[in-house]
Amino acid sequence: MQIQTILAFGGHSEAAIQFYQAAIGAEVQVMLRWKDSPDPAMRTVSSDPEKIMHASFRIGDTILMATDGIETLAQPDIKGITLNLEARDDSEARQLFAALSNGGNVQMPLTKTFWTSLSGMLTDRFGVSWMVNVAQPAS
């Protein structure tokens, strides 16, 4: 069994994915626009056929999905979920945290904690909540 996360960006999927590519090295695997649907009825679901129907992108070993959704359905804010990003060391944690927080909101600046050398929390410019931690060596 596997759980995969789908982030609904309400019309901003392409910009969000481009941000993640530049900020943390995301790699796009699939990006399908509404106009690309083989089902003619699906091509008219969105008022903008260039919007993203489905995208899949990799960050490290994790695959995330994104969609601009169907405009007639309410697009809730992304709440109640936090993505945890483990950095290899303090330097990488600082770089990732700075990149993700650019244009976003920091809830907890990177700081030493009892569980790791650096940990911080932020919400990025697209409303996604992140925790950045330095990975602890296996004991």
Automatic annotation (TrEMBL):
This is VOC family protein. Residues 2-132 form the PhnB-like domain. It comes from Undibacterium hunanense. CDD domains: PhnB_like. It comes from the Bacteria. Pfam families: 3-dmu-9_3-mt.
